Amino acid sequence: MSVNEQQYLDLCRHVLDNGEKKSDRTNTGTYSVFGAQMRFDLAEGFPLLTTKKVNFKLIVSELLWFIHGDTNIRYLLEHNNNIWNEWAFKRWVESAEYTGPDMTDFGNRALVDEAFNAQYKQEMATFKQRILEDDVFMQQYGDLGPVYGKQWRHWQTSQGEAIDQLKDVIHSLKTNPDSRRHIVTAWNPEDVPSNMALPPCHAMFQFYVANGKLSCQLYQRSADIFLGVPFNIASYSLLVHLIANEAGLEVGEFIHTLGDAHIYLNHLDQVKEQLSREMYTLPKINVTAGKSLFDLTVDDITLLDYQSHPPIKAPIAV
């Protein structure tokens, strides 16, 4: 039995049994608890859930997108990664230039109105094609504002200078591993209110070195347990591997601290289905040796021996 994955399943059960029913920004509704923590020993295996299939390639391309400092979805679309499409699409259909069918509340309407769902899929397909082919359109509507990649790599100071937090923390890990300041934050109070398509959910992370092993703790202010958290667990565990590789360290733990940990009301059946499944042994990963973190491509990161149950689909709340 995987101790790592069991923690996630226990969290699901805890929120189902003890969560408060709350309203939320998306008007979907949640069961929510405040304050939870999971610890993943990366020596056990790579914590990619086995009780449902999680698309590892999407995790890799998104993380490299962050690491490269990119904030435009074109890179993701070029790697067949659609996980940020809805937020860019929302900006487009709410703009004065959009003249197509009414797309108000498209996420929820597409679930219950078959005719609208067909319209939505057509509009989304057209939008994605324009992002890939039209540079001007891509610059205006493919960019999500100063989200994760911008804050990690190009934090803008009040003096107009840029701070590369990720490079700085790697330098610090190499030169002063016992420092208590190995921190990267994506939560920029100046950019949150108006400029970001989605304020950062995984807001701040800190590295820690002991006995030649690198550990990382993430504080996540808002945690979509069924859809988002499995990606977050795998993404930051992968980041630990990549940073450890860059700094000449072994991997230790990934500690995941959650603020508002919630299950959306339209994910309840999916969570219960997942909880009915048995776990498999965790997979492992391989990273191309001798390559800088900032030069890695999706082909440099390989998942090994991944066995899982089938995926479970669920709607995303935008």
Automatic annotation (TrEMBL):
GO terms for biological process: dTMP biosynthetic process; dTTP biosynthetic process; methylation. Pathway: Pyrimidine metabolism; dTTP biosynthesis. It is an enzyme of class 2 (transferase). It comes from Halolactibacillus alkaliphilus. The active site is at residue 201. PROSITE patterns: THYMIDYLATE_SYNTHASE (PS00091). Its EC number is 2.1.1.45. One of its GO terms (cellular component) is cytosol. The lineage of its organism: Bacteria, Bacillati, Bacillota, Bacilli, Bacillales. DUMP binds at residues 25, 180-181, 221-224, 232, 262-264. The keyword Methyltransferase applies. Coiled coil: none annotated. It is found in: Cytoplasm. Keywords: Cytoplasm, Methyltransferase, Nucleotide biosynthesis, Transferase. Residues 6-318 form the Thymidylate synthase/dCMP hydroxymethylase domain. Catalyzes the reductive methylation of 2'-deoxyuridine-5'-monophosphate (dUMP) to 2'-deoxythymidine-5'-monophosphate (dTMP) while utilizing 5,10-methylenetetrahydrofolate (mTHF) as the methyl donor and reductant in the reaction, yielding dihydrofolate (DHF) as a by-product. This enzymatic reaction provides an intracellular de novo source of dTMP, an essential precursor for DNA biosynthesis. (6R)-5,10-methylene-5,6,7,8-tetrahydrofolate binds at residues 55, 224, 317. SUPFAM superfamilies: Thymidylate synthase/dCMP hydroxymethylase. Its main location: cytoplasm. Homodimer. GO terms for molecular function: thymidylate synthase activity. Gene3D superfamilies: Thymidylate synthase/dCMP hydroxymethylase domain. This is Thymidylate synthase. It catalyses: dUMP + (6R)-5,10-methylene-5,6,7,8-tetrahydrofolate = 7,8-dihydrofolate + dTMP. It comes from the Bacteria.
